[in-house]
Amino acid sequence: MRISVLDVGSNTVRLVVADAEGGVPLPVHTAKWRLRLSEQVRPGAAVPEEAVERLVCAVAAAARTADRWGAAGPLAFATAVVRAAPNRAEVLRAVSTRTGVALCTMPGELEAELTFLGARRWMGWRSGPLALLDIGGGSFEVAFGRGRLPDFVASLPLGANRLTHDFFAGEDPPSADLVRALRRRVRHQLRDVAARIRWEGPRTAVATSRTFQQLGRLCGALPGRHGPFVDRTLDRRDLRAAVDRLAVLPAGERAGLPGISAPRAAQSLAGAVVGHTAMKLTGLRTVTVCPWAIREGVMLRHIEDGGSWWAEVSRPADGATGPPEPVPLRVARH
């Protein structure tokens, strides 16, 4: 069986085509289209017509690519930048009508559950009680669990792009006062979630997302060309030094640092502040940078539960203007 997953994020549309024989998704082709929606859509604002047009073109190209590689229509979802838009229903309808792809949005809590599922399978049972941190463009997801499913999930409005817009839009580089104000916001919003993670006492912690991958590279992790199977860790002390390093540089100069790409340079400082503050509040000294995340979680669900679960997740909510209601995560037991 060959399947495909399409992830519409705040910066990039990513397609993964994978073979699913034996219950393990093995990628055979990946592709991406850089839309930079976060630069065109203010947090919580409507997606403009021009951005919708570019999104439609990217999804259509992804569907053609999946077909060329012998996969059925992609399991397609959009994250916070579309989920929080007042015209979300119109955007999803335009994509569906013009491309035939049923793009959907999921609650942040469900994104956290699926990301945890992907990370748990990658890390294996030897990792024990597992904590997960995932920084997106619009939201920050946290999860903890002892089994294949998380016992606790949270989705907070602490995405790297959202915070960059809220705190750093007027200064490049930002003042020390603005950086402190951002850290106070993160501490306040994370207080209860962090207390829960400390109480649970995870044996292992993982970080997913491009933001953490780039911060890991900045702090000395091996580059992607070494493959997914090398150990990549991120130490809290190194991340604190990275915050100081990023804070004194304008975005254009950050892009010259190891691992920091030009499209994400502006939001790298906010991402580093969120990551470091979260690790400090939760008591995590080191996290493993995990290559599997939400896309792999979606593929695992599809392999184990078939197409019925996705039909429920992607069912359109006619007339809805806010995020859809959560769909319970159910993984087949063997």
Characterization of the model:
The protein has helices spanning 37-40, 49-68, 80-83, 88-99, 108-123, 160-168, 176-200, 210-218, 236-247, 251-254, 265-282, 294-305, 308-313, and strands spanning 2-8, 12-19, 26-34, 75-78, 104-105, 130-135, 140-145, 152-156, 204-208, 233-235, 286-289. The protein is built from 13 helices and 11 strands. It has a 6-stranded mixed β-sheet with strand order 8-7-6-9-11-10, sandwiched between helices. The chain is globular, with a radius of gyration of 19 Å.
In short:
The protein has 334 residues and is α/β, with parallel strands linked by helices.
Layout of secondary structure:
Blueprint: E1 2-8, E2 12-19, E3 26-34, H1 37-40, H2 49-68, E4 75-78, H3 80-83, H4 88-99, E5 104-105, H5 108-123, E6 130-135, E7 140-145, E8 152-156, H6 160-168, H7 176-200, E9 204-208, H8 210-218, E10 233-235, H9 236-247, H10 251-254, H11 265-282, E11 286-289, H12 294-305, H13 308-313
Parallel strand pairs: 1-4, 4-5, 6-9, 9-11
Antiparallel strand pairs: 1-2, 2-3, 6-7, 7-8, 10-11
Helix pairs in contact: 2-4, 5-12, 6-11, 7-11, 8-11, 9-11
